[in-house]
């Protein structure tokens, strides 16, 4: 998993509450178990019209936000089903951080396991960040995981809380597999001892 230490990029405002995982990545894209290639399906029902052409009104189709790395969304982001394809799609599109006032628990956990930083802020701070994000190409935010702060285009600073263990894993690029591999020597020693003591297994 790619490490997350700091990020500076354009932030796209998504002024919608209760954005569920089916909206993030519709069910027809769930046939794959690969983590790549899902970016084209991100918010597909909002990004595309019925004839397959782009909806120019959707924020990620607007020129200023096509390369957005940060999403500023309203309350209860990532609710609905537990599909891990949702963070995969965000990451494949290029989104490394989602900021909201609240997240569904499973989606929140899946973000950390896939290299995305989900940041919870107060409603007042979210309003400031959405206002910053509405500046189009000038909507650049800087996020420092070590300092646990967000810096806006005018120099304003918003701090956020994060669980220390999740912070450690994200800043070191450790998903569940990576955490297990850190214990590789102990696992191998245990297996060797078990094989020696119980050769019949």
Topology:
Elements: E1 6-14, H1 21-24, H2 44-47, E2 70-73, H3 85-93, E3 97-100, H4 105-113, E4 117-120, H5 123-133, E5 140-144, E6 149-151, E7 157-159, H6 164-171, H7 176-181, H8 184-197
Parallel strand pairs: 1-2, 2-3, 3-4
Antiparallel strand pairs: 1-5, 5-6, 6-7
Could you list some keywords that capture this structure?
seven-stranded mixed sheet, 201 residues, 16% strand, alpha/beta, single chain, Aconitase, domain 4
Give an overview of the whole structure.
It is a single chain. The chain has 201 residues and is α/β, with parallel strands linked by helices. 32% of the residues lie in helices and 16% in strands. It has a single domain (6-174), classed as Aconitase, domain 4. Strand 5 and strand 6 (149-151) form a beta hairpin. 31% of the residues are buried. The mean pLDDT is 92.
Q: What's the CATH class label?
A: Alpha Beta
Number of domains: 1
CATH superfamily: Aconitase, domain 4
Helix content: 25-40%
Main β-sheet, spatial strand arrangement: 4-3-2-1-5-6-7
Class by alpha and beta content: alpha/beta
The CATH architecture: Alpha-Beta Barrel
**Which stretches are poorly predicted, pLDDT < 50 over at least 5 residues?**
none
Order of helices and strands: EHHEHEHEHEEEHHH
Shape: globular
Work out the radius of gyration. Answer: 19 Å
């Amino acid at each position: 998993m790619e490490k997350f230490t700091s990020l500076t990029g354009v932030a796209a405002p998504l002024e919608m509450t209760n954005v569920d995982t089916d909206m993030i990545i519709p069910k027809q894209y769930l046939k794959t178990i690969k983590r790549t290639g899902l970016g084209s399906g991100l918010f597909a029902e909002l990004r595309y019209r019925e004839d397959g052409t782009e909806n120019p009104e959707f924020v990620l189709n607007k020129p200023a936000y096509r390369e957005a790395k940060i999403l500023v969304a309203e309350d209860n982001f990532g609710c609905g089903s537990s599909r891990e394809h949702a963070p995969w799609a965000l990451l494949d599109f290029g989104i490394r951080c989602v900021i909201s006032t609240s997240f569904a628990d499973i989606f929140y956990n899946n973000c950390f396991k896939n290299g995305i930083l989900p940041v919870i802020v107060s409603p007042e701070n979210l309003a400031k960040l959405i206002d910053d994000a509405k500046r189009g190409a000038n909507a650049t935010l800087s996020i420092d995981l070590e300092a646990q702060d967000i810096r806006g285009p005018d120099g304003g600073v918003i701090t956020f809380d994060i669980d220390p263990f999740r912070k450690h894993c994200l800043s070191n690029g450790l998903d569940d597999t990576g955490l297990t591999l850190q214990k590789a020597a102990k696992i191998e020693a245990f297996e060797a001892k078990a094989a020696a003591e119980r050769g019949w297994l």
